[in-house]
Design goal:
It is built from 10 helices and 10 strands. The protein has a 6-stranded mixed sheet, with helices on both faces. A 4-stranded mixed sheet has the order 4-6-8-9. Helix 3 crosses helix 4 and helix 8 runs antiparallel to helix 9. Helix content is 43%, strand content 16%. The N and C termini lie far apart (43 Å). It is α/β, with parallel strands linked by helices.
Length: 263
């Protein structure tokens, strides 16, 4: 049974920060306390240059996250708003994930619904168990997935996204892979080995190049092509002057593994 006083576990595993929504009995549903804890873990990773990646997942095998906790008395208050406050805690988390300069990987251990889809789409990479299903059922509750749309629009094909938002119908992991929602789909028994395989391909690369590259990626995605090219011209000069770039080029010429200097 999860400790309801600690709805999220933040664990350091070598160079990787794991963030686990630990509410298996509530299908890892999210509320303000859960979001605050996830955001704290993401911000801590962003501020620690010894961390090379973040993994976001849910406890157990049933659900990655079922979205907002709508059960009374669970601290949800998902659709109660302070109209004097212009910022919503879920949107602030999405901003934290985008500002985190290390890759954030979603380990999709089970079903993903509603706000859980927002968490998934905000992540940089995703690996899903083939038993997972996905959906945005808000329209059946008289709602619409407003706050998660900005990230979903960037990840999913327009017509498929409109269909899932309007109908609220769930779809399979195979369909999620075909739409580009996830990078890989594997049987549940192979989920953790696949996550470790992908993490291994991340943590051995230059941490400086990855941090600067993720920053540039997110900056460029909302720019016009001309602006993005100008931004790229300036940033390739910056990247080429880092100690990691000098070390990487030297190691390539000397046919040896690089020893990253993390600056």
């Amino acid at each position: 049974m999860s400790d309801t006083s600690r709805p999220v576990r933040v664990e350091r595993r070598g160079p990787v920060q794991w963030i686990v929504i630990d509410r298996e009995e509530r299908r890892n549903a999210i509320n303000e306390a859960v979001i605050a804890a996830i955001a704290g873990g993401v911000r801590a990773a962003a501020g620690d240059h010894s961390i090379r990646a973040v993994v976001l997942t849910g406890a157990g095998q049933r659900a990655f996250s079922a979205g907002a906790d709508l059960k009374p008395g669970t601290g949800g208050a998902a659709f109660e708003f302070d109209f004097a406050e212009p910022r919503h805690y879920l949107v602030e988390l999405f901003r934290d994930i985008e500002r985190c300069d290390v890759p954030v990987l979603a380990r999709v251990n089970g079903h993903v619904r509603a706000g859980g889809m927002g968490l998934l789409c905000a992540c940089d990479l995703a690996i899903a168990a083939d038993t997972a299903t996905f959906g945005t059922p808000e329209s059946g509750l008289g709602l619409f997935p407003m706050m998660i749309l900005p990230h979903m629009i960037r990840v999913l094909p327009r017509r498929k996204l409109l269909e899932m938002c309007i109908t609220g119908e769930a779809f399979s992991a195979a369909e999620a892979l075909a739409m580009g929602l996830v990078n890989y789909v594997v049987p549940p028994a192979e989920l953790d080995p696949k996550v470790e395989w992908l993490l291994g391909r991340i943590v051995d690369k230059s941490p400086t190049a990855v941090r600067l590259g993720k920053y540039a990626f997110h900056a460029m995605q909302d720019m016009a092509v001309g602006e993005a090219l100008t931004f790229a011209e300036a940033n390739i000069r910056l990247v080429s002057q880092t100690d990691d770039a000098r070390e990487g080029i030297s190691a390539f010429a000397e046919k040896r593994p690089p020893k990253w200097r993390e600056r």
